[in-house]
Amino acid sequence: MGRDPLRSGLTVYEFEKYLAPSQHEVTELVRRHPFALVVTNGGGAAGAPTVTHTPVIIERLAPDGGFVGGEMLGHIARKNPQWQQITDGDSVLLVFSGPHDYVSPTTYADDPNVPTWDYAAVHLTARATVLEGESDGMHVVTRTVEELESLEPTAWDMQSSLPTFERIVGGIVSFRFEIIEQRAVFKVSQDKPLEVRERVAAASRARGCPHGDVAELVERIGGDR
Rounded to an integer, what distance in angstroms lies between the CA atom of residue 43 and that of residue 49? Predict the structure, then answer.
């Protein structure tokens, strides 16, 4: 079924100086930003990759607490033809984007300089299993609700809505993803002096960036504290 993402370059480049500071940071980014890109090969025009935006949640971490060897769950609409391009065991790429923001050279207070972008992202390569059954679908959607509601100040109780779930679950196809590779980049100005990072964070907050609180990452991760 098309090319294997492991062999076709569909993975994030890891910069040595921007590696994830810990597995905990990687796990929390995925947990708190579960609206992922599911990327498969060969379905688009001229064999271009096919991509669907959908929640992908953690079902089980590996025994060492990381993703490799663990499992994740996701689902897409049955009308979406992407699922028909996936055979059990195919590799897919799961892309999770965390906070990100533009960095203006005005924050550096020296010239010449160039603008850049601060961001955090996690790419997980996985072996996919297609779950067409309604019982599997119910498990995936209820687990998804549990995970997403756990991030809410007050969790919604889905029990009274389960009959509705059962009525419409046939409209989705679910997946189990066995994670076989993890790559992550946390590029958050950690190579800059403290006073520059403080200006970068302040500028992001003043701008009111709609792409998440990258300022918190800039202040917390790396550098000369």
Answer: 6
